[in-house]
Amino acid sequence: MKSKAMVLKEFMKPLEMEEFEIAPLEAGEVLIKIEAAGVCGSDVHMWKGEDPRTPLPIILGHEGVGRIQEIKGKKQTVYGEDLQVGDLVIWNRGVTCGQCFACKILKDPSLCKNRKVYGINQSSAVFPYLNGCYSEYIILNSNTDIFKVEDTVDPALLVSASCSGATIAHAFDMISSVLGDTVVIQGPGPLGVYAVAFAKSMGASEIIVIGGSKERLDLCTYFGATLVLDRHETNIQERNQMIMEKTRGIGADLVVEAVGTRGVAEEGLKLLRSGGTYLSTGYAQPAGEESIDFYRDIVSKNITVHGVWVSDTKHTKMAIDIVMKNKEHFAKLISHRFSLEEANQAIASMNAREALKAVLIPNRG
Ligand SMILES: [Zn+2]
Ligand SMILES: [Zn+2]
Q1: DSSP state of 9
Q2: What is the pLDDT of residue 365?
Q3: b/e map of 139-149 (b: 16 or more CB within 10 Å)?
Q4: How does pLDDT run across 101-128, given as a tens digit for each residue?
Q5: Distance 41 CA to ligand 1 centre (A)
Q6: Of the four listed, 21, 113, 281, 313, which is most buried by Cβ atoms within 10 Å?
Q7: Residue 47 and residue 158 share a domain
Q8: Which of 260, 250, 29, 242 minimizes the C-alpha distance to 143?
Q9: Do the Cβ atoms of 239 and 219 come closer than 8 Å?
Q10: Is residue 74 located within the same domain as residue 105?
């Protein structure tokens, strides 16, 4: 049996279709027929060679939903249910070691130094080769945390739950509550959309989103944002003034950074009230330095700044739950669908910011 996959062999060059022999499974491994593979903003950075984790050659794609084709021996879901051939599943994109300092002592697997991530740091030259989701099939190793999902759900709806959704869940998991708070979200992409959804579900009273695309800001409004500020229609001072007016001169309780480009943290920190919290989720690859006045914007205001690096299995669960409760909303997040062969167009559409969320459907029909 063979699987077609789209392989990145050289940065900035088109992915190439390759056919892989599907290796015999080892104990606990699961062969998945991919039903939907998310095209993430990170994939564009990886394609450009901007993510230092990227080995070549690689099958991109760390966001997948698929059906079990084969299981070697027994494998259970995170709930302890036996998985069966034919089950529709989603999985945690990272596989952690359980042995390192972060896993054992910090109990924070998202910081595992041996974390393997499908489609991000696993080359297609490394056994069992099918290590990414831009593929007809992927082989999940025996330590992968797997969730079974409702058979009737559109698989494309859930792909982002394993990446942007889980990362934002991780961010909100770091704070105790947002009940009644004013939350400012910088960036209306998939991370920002999830941030609106989580802020709303946790009871934020005001949800303000800053972004540069009217379409994306409209989607945030649909998800529950109470005010959207277009970067092209306002400058930094005006946005700051509007947010201060909205909060009676106090500032926002919480700011969620979901952009990852230079200058964003500098603007965002100034929007916080004294004692406020800054959650930075957007820097998935190096983006240069920020110019921060620590005395004025952090120390003299008792500000808490939280870096948010990836996520772990608990956060994937939180993200799946929020998607399943808001299916109609999350359906609108998916702007483009492509076949596996069209993966290069999918990356181009994300790169040009035409697509908010593109999804590959590798096994049509
Ligand atoms: Zn991603
Ligand atoms: Zn570890």
Answers
A1: -
A2: 59
A3: bbbeebbbbbb
A4: 999 999 999 999 999 999 999 999 999 9
A5: 6
A6: 281
A7: yes
A8: 29
A9: no
A10: yes
